[in-house]
Design goal:
It is built from 8 helices and 68 strands. It has a 5-stranded mixed sheet with strand order 57-63-62-59-60, with no helix packed on it. The protein is flat, with a radius of gyration of 44 Å. By secondary structure, it is α+β, with helices and mostly antiparallel strands. Helix 5 crosses helix 6 and helix 6 packs across helix 7 (about 855-875).
């Protein structure tokens, strides 16, 4: 099982990965360094990677979609086995001995180390670095103390041990040419007595403690406390030679043979047929007696299933004739309704018969119940009969109402009324007479069964699906739910609120409350599980038309009448299937191009169609999986996908998205598992905030230009109108013009003064050489930060930075280079600080940082990053000979005195200088 839960098998021409739905083949075109494509060994490493081994080309590792070479054969070596121990060391078996690969190097174990002569054929990792090897001359244990060999003197037969296993129970087992052995003390003994003496090729101990033995020519053996059993080509195994065994997380056993791959799982369905001793395979009904035995009525008569064994009734006078229905009375009598001979009553004193000559309505008896008053009601193909206090009364088929009394099923409701199910619908006995309850016009009334639920509602089962009778009104399950289109034969409830239905499509389970809601509102979803493809159910045809066609026994198991025998279903056997399977996203396609499904992706702004392929990794009831997904950033809620395993999105707007998908199992006992894929679609230029800001700025400039143009136009108009003014105002006009001109000059002057003032203000705050804050601005920022910190109880740090050996730089390279160094360090400081931090030139070659809201450790981390950047980048490629470094003192400020803060940082800076420069020293002020 490769990570996370896909099955992978080695093939003659590559490897195949199975996700529960499809096989993906890895041939020589997908396997690197493996020209012939053969995969001889598969091993899952502790880090989740998969090791694929080829005899000639060694070992390759697949981790997160990337291939690496784990081991390459040398000098004609052939890989025969591989494993990884619990210390992460890689062990490789070759025809020349054993190889161990670890961080310290590679070591070869041969006969000089105590290994048996010959090839290492199999490997199994134990505990604390221990490894067991099966070789062509026995078994060897390799641990920290050395090598211990086991051969004929230790109980093994002569020859090779082609399989070795250290099971979870820590018992060591070996597979030889003469069967399976286990280590008992210091000797190997046969795994069990009576096992066939076959050459063993694979070993496995499953979670139940059973030992599975793969053989070279006789399939696989299972050894349990009850003995051993065999699975071979006779039982359907595709090949007699078993090469590998594996148990998956859901309890299935995978068998790799030379003829193909098989999945073996604990059957949730078991069938009792003529092979096991049943009277006939065509079963009509079942009943459970007070001892827990199951009585089965079939075309061959009645059989009893008790403790897994089948026998026939021992009652004197019983005739094994075709039987339809069963009734176990309170007094222990078994009533058998037959096809042509009325009723046989099996009692302690012998068999009695009730037939048409005795007043029975008909010989074909399909339904029987015992009412609460002790009366017996019998439904036949020719009418209804009641036996009460030794008196038999019948309502035969007569006239136009004949089909009304073709009785297939009977039920006594909680009210005491007797209900009859017929091909024409529902009838009932109210204590005085029979009455018919017709279904609404246009709906099928062909009934096979009746069921009363815990709410007291009567459910009608038939070829038209499901009907509910509540408060005298019929309500059907809408056909938009597929269960509403099935033919339903029987229905039983369990103690967990589930309904189990025998249908034409197999056994179906549904939560009863979900069923009630779906009938109340057809728009409601109806989650259900259909067990048509479960282990043991393949090809089963469920029967109806006689009662009861299904029962729920006291042990919780459900018995079904089928054309292949009496089938028993154990809900507990599918518990693992009710665990939510892991979900994986297998492929992500962007405009048809594949992307890495495991890593977040930055897509292009032109990305159009994004397609996700996903699957729930379940090897059990795969067709019952349902999916839901959502795209965070786009979908407001989960989208129900049914059984679909693909979804696509087109033309998504720019943004950050996370696609999440879950595989759902109806009735799951745990929360569903999610698979996610994050991606980002960047905006086009016209969608960026910068572009929008530029548009707004341009619009503002245009508005200002229009306003100024409009003002100018109005002024010109005023000037034109002024020309028309009386000559006596000309002098006044000229004065006004001069005043206006003076006003304009004043405005220009004011504008220039404002620009100069802004420049002076900036120069008053900035250092002219570096562009950082000057000493005055630093003092102001520190004072403000001290006031904020004291009022809000927030941390504050101050750092002083000094360029190491700056005087030597000036003396050696000149003041021009010194200025270049100051500007370079200032640029590095500017690149690592952001508001509300303040960075400035403290004086000479010293700089200062005021760091509000930063604790000492965070401030030290920032300064360490600055130190590393300065040391690494220096002045760049222009002056590689100049080794530039800085020393920094970082103080966490407590108090309100800025001078003390600078002094503390300066003392720490001095420590950094004295300690060898090019370092950061921190402390509290």
């Amino acid at each position: 099982m490769s990570n996370p839960a896909t099955a992978t098998s080695g093939l003659r021409r590559g490897a195949a990965r199975f996700n529960g739905r499809d096989f993906e083949i890895f041939d020589e075109n997908k396997l690197p360094w493996n020209e012939d494509g053969s995969v001889f060994r598969l091993t899952r490493a502790h880090d989740g990677s998969l090791l694929l081994g080829s005899q000639r080309y060694g070992l390759s590792r697949l981790r997160q979609g990337a291939w690496t070479r784990a081991w390459t054969p040398q000098r004609g070596e052939l890989l025969l086995a591989a494993t990884e121990d619990d210390r992460g060391r890689l062990w490789i078996g070759t025809r020349d001995g054993l190889i161990r690969i670890d961080p310290n190097g590679t070591r070869h174990f041969g006969s000089e180390d105590g290994m048996p002569d010959g090839a290492v054929l199999s490997l199994s990792a134990g505990h604390d670095g221990e490894v067991w090897a099966g070789t062509s001359e026995g078994v060897a244990r390799i641990d920290d103390t050395g090598v211990r060999a086991y051969g004929t003197e230790q109980g093994l037969p002569p020859g090779e041990s082609g399989a070795v296993l250290v099971a979870p129970d820590r018992v060591v087992r070996a597979g030889t040419k003469r069967g399976a052995y286990r280590l008992d003390g210091d000797r190997f003994v046969p795994a069990a007595s009576g096992l066939p003496v076959d050459e063993v090729s694979a070993l496995l101990v499953d979670r139940a403690g059973s030992l599975w033995i793969g053989t070279v020519g006789n399939g696989v053996l299972r050894l349990t406390e009850r003995g051993w059993e065999q699975l071979s080509v006779v039982q359907g195994l595709p090949g007699a030679q078993v090469n590998a065994l594996l148990e998956d997380a859901q309890g299935s056993l995978w068998i790799g043979t030379h003829g193909g791959l098989s999945q073996l799982r604990e059957a949730s369905f078991a069938t009792y047929s003529r092979t096991e001793g049943l009277a006939d395979n065509f079963v009509r009904s079942m009943a459970e007696d007070r001892d827990g035995a199951i009585w089965v009525a079939s075309n061959g008569g009645v059989s009893r299933v008790r403790d897994g064994r089948i026998d026939a009734p021992e009652t004197t006078g019983y005739d094994a004739v075709s039987s339809l229905s069963l009734l176990l009375r309170q007094n222990g009598e078994l009533w058998v309704g037959t096809y042509r001979d009325g009723v046989q009553i099996l009692a302690a004193e012998g068999v009695r018969r009730l037939q048409r000559k005795d007043g029975l309505a008909g010989e074909e008896v399909r339904a029987m119940i015992e009412a609460t008053d002790g009366s017996i009601w019998l439904g036949t193909a020719n009418g209804l009969s009641r036996l009460q206090d030794g008196s038999l009364r019948s309502w035969p088929r007569v006239g136009d109402e004949a089909n009304q009394l073709y009785v297939r099923t009977l039920l006594q409701g909680a009210s005491g009324a007797i209900y009859l199910g017929t091909p024409e619908g529902l009838a009932w006995w109210d204590g005085q007479s029979l009455a018919r309850l017709p279904l609404p016009e246009g709906r099928s009334a062909n009934l096979f069964g009746l069921h009363e639920c815990v709410h007291g509602h009567l459910w009608l089962l038939g070829s038209g699906g499901l009907w509910r009778l509540r408060d005298g009104r019929f309500e059907a399950l809408d056909p938009r739910h597929d269960l509403g289109r099935f033919t339903i034969f029987g229905m039983v409830g369990d103690d967990q609120g589930n309904d189990w239905l025998s249908t034409s499509r197999g056994l179906v389970s549904v939560r009863h409350e979900d069923l009630e809601r779906a009938v109340d509102d057809p728009a409601q979803s109806l989650p259900r599980t259909r067990y048509a493809d479960d282990a043991g159910s393949e090809g089963l045809s469920l029967n109806g038309g006689s009662m009861p066609p299904m029962i729920r026994a006291h042990d919780g198991r459900i018995w079904l009448a089928t054309g292949q025998g009496a089938v028993v279903f154990d809900p507990d056997a599918v518990e693992v299937a009710l665990a939510s399977p892991p979900t994986v996203i297998e492929r992500v396609l962007v405009d048809g191009d594949p992307r890495d499904a495991d890593d977040p992706a930055d897509l292009s702004a032109d990305s159009g169609r994004i397609e996700f392929h996903y699957v729930g990794l379940s090897f059990f009831a795969r067709d019952s999986l349902r999916y839901r997904y959502r795209l965070e950033g786009f979908d407001a809620q989960w989208v129900e996908a049914g059984g679909s395993t693909t979804v696509s999105y087109a033309n998504l707007p720019p943004g950050d998205y996370v696609f999440e998908v879950q595989a759902l199992v109806a009735g799951a006992v745990d929360a569903p598992h999610s698979a996610v894929h994050a991606f980002r679609i960047p905006p086009h230029l016209h969608q960026t905030p910068e572009f929008r800001a530029a548009v707004i700025l341009l619009a503002g400039l245009l508005l200002v230009w229009w306003f100024r143009w409009r003002t100018y136009a109005l002024r010109r108009r005023a000037e034109d109108l002024q020309v028309l003014v009386d000559e006596r105002t000309k002098e006044l006009k000229r004065r006004g013009d001069r005043l206006e001109e003076a006003d304009r000059d004043k405005a220009v002057l004011i504008s220039r003064l404002e620009v100069q003032s802004a420049q002076l203000a900036r120069h008053a705050k900035e250092d002219g050489l570096t562009g950082l804050a000057n000493r005055r601005e630093l003092d102001r920022a520190l004072q403000a930060a001290l006031e904020d910190a004291s009022g809000s109880d927030q941390p504050l740090a101050v750092a002083l930075i000094d360029i190491d050996r700056f005087k030597r730089i000036n003396d050696t390279f000149g003041h021009g280079v010194g200025d270049e160094v100051l500007r370079s360090v200032a640029d590095r400081i500017r690149g690592l600080t952001e508001p509300p931090m303040t960075a400035g030139r403290y004086g000479g070659e010293e700089f200062a940082l005021v760091l509000p809201n930063l604790r000492l450790q965070d401030a030290r981390t920032l300064c360490e990053r600055l130190r590393i950047v300065v040391e690494k980048e220096g002045l760049g490629a222009e002056r590689p000979e100049l080794n530039l470094s800085i020393s920094i003192g970082v103080a966490e400020v407590v108090g309100s005195d800025p001078g003390e803060a600078y002094a503390r940082a300066d003392r720490l800076l001095y420590k950094a200088k004295r300690g060898g420069r090019n370092r950061v020293i921190s402390g509290r002020a």
